[in-house]
Amino acid sequence: MFSVEKHLKGVSLAISAAALAISAPLVAGVIVKSSGPSAEDFPVGTKVKDTDRIVLEEGDQVTILNSAGTRELRGPGTFRAGVRGAPQRATLANLTRQGARQRVRPGATRAGSGEGTRSPNLWYVDVTKSGSMCVPDLQTVFLWRPETETEQTFIMRPGTSDYHQHVTFAEGSTVRPVDNERLPLEEGVEYMISGPGGAVATTVTFTVIDAPTEDAEGMADILIDKGCSLQLDLLSQTLATN
User: Fold this and answer.
1) For the CA atoms of the chain, what is the radius of gyration?
2) What ranges make up the beta strands (E) of the chain?
3) For residue range 73-102, what is the model confidence (pLDDT) as tens digits?
4) Is residue 148 part of a domain?
């Protein structure tokens, strides 16, 4: 038999749950970059809630990342911390895809030439930049270059050894694998990557991480903890909403 009392009680509970969901402060994300006079007040890695107010001075810049993307705040002014929008799951999945499953169209990420190009994958080693690299697997490491106009050969070797590997990019190619049999990569070892034309060599050190999270904020936490700032910048730029 239909019970009016039970029905009203159910409606009341549903309304209460909805009210709690609306009123509960949501985690807006994590600060992934800050600069300016107030930078020390907003250290990288700080968690912020959706309801937090960020007060910035002239010259301040703070970037906040969550599942909806990244948002850059510029002072002076007072800003709500929350990043609005639907989660960018597909973008994050493409950026963090591993190994042979990643397929790249030459020039697919090119917004112009030179500095307008960025790596399409979080795990690719950019041959033009130095820094620490977080990778899920040292057996499948790829080098990436921003230019595609000509064939180029890069030399990769440990900083403490003359043993090396030549990695050649054909014209139009942006990605080449490191041959792990010829050059077994090790965690914590500094590797030098030198290119053609006498360009200054870059250096990279690898840190192995657990299986990557599917959550943007969680991924940022890992990169911050391991000191992989190049990848943190790439994650932030790729998920930018403004």
Assistant:
1) 23
2) 27-35, 47-49, 53-56, 61-66, 69-74, 77-80, 125-126, 131-135, 142-144, 152-158, 165-169, 175-177, 190-194, 202-208
3) 999 999 988 766 777 889 999 999 985 444
4) yes
Q: What residues have CB less than 8 Å from 45, skipping those under 6 apart?
A: 30, 31, 221, 224, 225
Encode pLDDT of 139-191 as tens digits.
Answer: 999 999 998 889 999 999 998 888 899 999 999 999 999 999 999 999 999 99
Evaluate whether residue 241 is within a structural domain. yes
**Residue 83 confidence (pLDDT):** 66
Residue 12 located in a structural domain: no
- Closest by CA to 66, choosing from 20, 120, 28, 93, is 28
Supply 124's token pair.
Answer: 């690719």
Residue 153 tokens read as 């050969």
| pTM for this prediction | 0.80
* Alpha-carbon gap, residue 24 to 16, rounded angstroms: 12
Considering the domain architecture, whether residues 129 and 195 belong to the same structural domain is answered as yes
Q: How far apart (Å, rounded) are the C-alpha atoms in residues 161 and 42? A: 41
* The Cα angle at residue 206 between residues 198 and 43, in degrees rounded to 5: 100
